[in-house]
Amino acid sequence: MPKHTARTAVVGALLLVIVTGTAFGGDDLGVERIDEAIDKGIEYLFSSQNADGSWPGHHEGHGQPLGPTGLCTYALLHAGVSPADERIVKAFRFMTNNPATKTYGVACYASAYGEAVMKGAKQYRRHLRQMGSLLIKSARRHSRGAYTYDLMKYDTFDLSNTNYGVFGVWVAQRVLGEVPKAYWHRTAQHWIDCQKDDGSWGYKDKDATRIALAAAGVASLFVCFDNLNASRFAKCGVDFASDPIYTHIQEALDWFDENFAVPIPGHIKGYSGNYYYLYNVERVGLAAGYKYFGKKDWFKMGTRFLLRAQRGNGAFPGKFGPDASTSFALLFLARGREPVMFNKLQFDGDWNNRPRDCAYVTRWAGPEFEHNFNWQIINLQVAPEDWHDAPIVYISGSQKPTFSEEELDKLRRYVHQGGTILSVAECSGKAFSDGMREVYKQLFPEYELTPCSPRHELYSAHFNLQGRPGFSIITNGVRPFAIHTDADLARAWQARKHETGGYAFRAAANVYFYVTDKRYRLRGEKTWPKRSRRNDRGEVTVVRVKHAGNWNPEPLAWERFGRLLCHRERWRVERDEPVTAEELAKSDAQMATMTGTEAFELTPKQRELLRQYVAAGGTLVIDAAGGRRAFGEAAEKMIRQIWGGGALERLSDRSPLYTRDGHAIEKVSYRRRTQVRGAPSGPALRAVRVMGRPAVIYSRHDLTTGLAGVRAYRCDGYTPKTAYELMRNVVISVGQR
User: Fold this and answer.
1) SS3 for 441?
2) CA angle at residue 348 from 343 to 352, to 5 degrees?
3) CATH fold of 538-735, please?
4) Rounded Cα gap, residues 561 and 731, in angstroms
5) Confidence band (pLDDT; 50, 70, 90) for 64?
6) Residue 14 has what pLDDT?
7) Are 384 and 413 in contact (CB under 8 A)?
8) By C-alpha distance, which of 542, 553, 560, 705 is closest to 619?
9) What is the DSSP letter of 525?
10) For the chain, is the Cβ count within 10 Å smaller at the N or the C terminus?
11) CA-closest candidate to residue 703, choices 622, 649, 630
């Protein structure tokens, strides 16, 4: 049995996704390093641009001097340069005045025009249509529906030019939607006819394998499969694995599982070198949706290679010159790290009835938001720490899902680390809906899956959905742990019903923006830090105080904070088990924390025990998780009952907690919701002083969700960066007393 039958969602089109983040302990591929490499590559390409807006040709030997200008322009746009940048405008002026007529140039022009149109430069639609028409007409007249260097030559071909030609048509189709199905039929058949018995491709027909063209073949068949099979899987139970195109895709992916390596392995011909190869690998990885080839993380391996290969001037040296190589490198880095909207979960069940649901909804989101988005398939064999490329794990099906205890633990940890589960019932799947409700009871027994009212912010986070579809939600009082709908959103996604099923696409966008607080997260952003053993500067023991309210909304917030503090400051946070007020009085913990989202009340005895703990030298930190007023009012009442009405005072902006040597907080930042409501101009912590020290520290603005590193649409409080810095200073102050 082919290996890919267990991961059948491999069929897809190129899709596109975003992030900003920080590298944590043990990670050598932080987003900052990728951003720096992209910026340097951009600077290099602009430095090599000619005065007339063009770039030097590296294919003059084949009479194609115009292609590099299209390729460089496309790469720069995809790397984030605006179509309105005067240097890009100059490049397009050159392209308009020097229209391409050869395959390589036309395809690269089409890519650049298409990217510009998607980013709002609608004036280039006419030029894109012209390029797409040239490519389609050439393939229609060719005896095999293929391409060679000259678009007017119809009796020969090579798979490199065919790769460019197909990609150029795909770009035009993605923006204009005007490609006849006959084109995709002929293109698919040509790649199938040229595929070798082992699943790979060479330069022509059954030539010796060239790994860059093996990747090009997979990507091209994915594009064909998408354009020929979108509506076939609107119904559940269709066996797409028997589709003839998919069969060849599967064989090619099996070959890649065995042979993928970076740089190109010595026993395989590279054709155009590592950069063109990686450009095609990125297309395959994003089309298939898989994070791994076999057990190899294609983006991580490719990025490591590129970061080492880049020269000081920002260029990447390659076979056809640094302009082309740098363009291919930028496309790999920029496209590969774009935001991942959804992780589609592969599990033991009918997880993949609609194999291209995520592919199509993320592709729709690109032009809609003038941003590129990705998706990917994950499985339960790896640790949940590896799932955080995306903020959402998407689970779909029509039958009852089953998960082992170990798998449930992974799902629960992913959520507690900041993720959200989105479950969608397909084909009126009552068994799936009932099964997921049971799963949620096992995952989060302390919370209920509750129907959302039509006024819930899920229905207005970006689009006004007018209460459709019917969502239910599990929340910790601040953010969604899980969102479920019995509406078959995946059917509309799979069938690409942008008009009649438009609400389903808009619902996906609202879920994404609600979960992420309207911010993108790039692939490679590390939200969960690795462990560090660098903890030789000090140690503080911290306990969490239990109470009758929702006392533990973010169970892993302090684990994450402790890891960050250890990595960045070499301080250790020793976390004891949560305690009651009675147990706290017997504890020797230097610091205790209280948080929650609901109203609560302590007994007189419990309040006295808290007073005794603080009087004996302990420090108590209290925050309203999510900035929830009910908890904040209850906490302030408790403080007045214990320490008196005027005891709680705002700390001065010059407080040592904010101005510590080496740890001064230069800028205090608040979340979007707090800013809309009117954020304070600086830190707003209040404190009760006991024997001159700030012994009780209180924040009505959220700290806990910030320590968890979570974005939350409804959170009123400090950003994760500021929450960390405030708590860092508190902990170190306690440890140095």
Assistant:
1) helix
2) 50
3) Rossmann fold (3.40.50)
4) 11
5) low
6) 27
7) yes
8) 542
9) -
10) N
11) 622
The 3-state secondary structure of 602-616, one letter per residue: CCHHHHHHHHHHHHC
Q: What does DSSP say about strands 648-650 and 374-379: parallel, antiparallel, or unpaired?
A: unpaired
Whole-prediction pTM = 0.87
Q: What are the phi and psi torsion angles at 674 (to 5°)?
A: -65, -40
pLDDT at 521: 81
Nearest-CA neighbor of 210 among 225, 198, 192? 198
Q: How far does CA 733 lie from the centroid of its chain?
A: 36
Using alpha carbons, list the distances in angstroms from residue 448 to 380, 440, 555: 24, 8, 17
Burial class from Cβ neighbours inside 10 Å (0-12, 13-18, 19+) for residue 161 reads: buried
677-706: average pLDDT = 95
Q: Is the torsion defined by CA of 380, 3, 494, 165 positive or negative?
A: positive
Judge whether residue 673 has pLDDT over 60: yes
Q: Is the pLDDT of residue 185 over 60?
A: yes
Rounded Cα–Cα distance for residues 139 and 66 (Å) = 21
d(CA 525, CA 426): 32
How confident is the prediction for the chain on average, in pLDDT? 90
What's CA 345's distance to the chain center, in Å?
A: 15
**Residue 159 near residue 215 (C-beta atoms within 8 A):** no
Considering only CA atoms, give the Rg of the chain.
28
Q: 341-516 and 538-735: same fold?
A: yes
Cβ-in-10-Å burial (0-12, 13-18, 19+) of 9 comes to buried
Residue 152's contacts (CB-CB under 8 Å, 6 or more residues apart) are: 138
Confidence of residue 59 (pLDDT cuts 50, 70, 90): low
Which region among 70-74, 122-126, 291-295 has the lowest average model confidence (pLDDT)? 291-295
Any idea what DSSP says for residue 670?
A: B
- Stretch 348-360: mean pLDDT, rounded? 91
Question: Is pLDDT at 63 greater than 60 in this prediction?
Answer: no
What is the phi/psi pair of residue 283, to 5°? -65, -40
Cβ(466)–Cβ(506) under 8 Å? no
Residue of 581, 598, 573, 613 whose CA lies nearest to 730? 573
Residue bearing the bigger pLDDT, 219 or 31: 219
Whether the per-residue pLDDT at 17 is higher than 50: the answer is no
Q: With 80 as the cut, is the pLDDT of residue 268 above it?
A: no
By residue count, the chain amounts to 737
* φ and ψ of 356, to 5 deg: -115, 20
Q: Calculate mean pLDDT across residues 12-39.
A: 54
E strand spans, 312-404: 340-346, 374-379, 392-397
HEC-encoded secondary structure of 88-109? HHHHHHHHHHCCCCEHHHHHHH
Domain spanning 20-336 has what CATH number?
1.50.10.20
58: DSSP letter: S
At residue 111, the 3 state secondary structure works out as: helix
DSSP string covering 251-283 = HHHHHHHHH--SS--TTSB-SSHHHHHHHHHHH
709: left (phi over 0), alpha (psi -120 to 50) or beta: left
Burial class (CB in 10 A: 0-12, 13-18, 19+), 216: buried
Q: Residue 420 — pLDDT band, cuts 50, 70, 90? A: very high
Which residues sit opposite 189 in a β-bridge?
Answer: none
At 282, list the tokens.
């990125």
What is the DSSP code (8-state) at residue 290?
B
Question: Lowest mean pLDDT: which of 53-67, 584-598, 698-712?
Answer: 53-67
* Domain extents in the chain: 20-336, 341-516, 538-735
How close are the terminal C-alpha atoms of the chain, in Å?
Answer: 65
Phi-psi region of 64 (alpha: psi -120 to 50; beta: other; left: phi over 0): beta
Note the CATH architecture for domain 341-516: 3-Layer(aba) Sandwich (3.40)
> In terms of Cα–Cα distance, which of 568, 534, 565 is closest to 728?
565
Axis-axis angle for helices 31-47, 67-78 (nearest 10): 150
Residue 29 has pLDDT above 60, yes or no: no
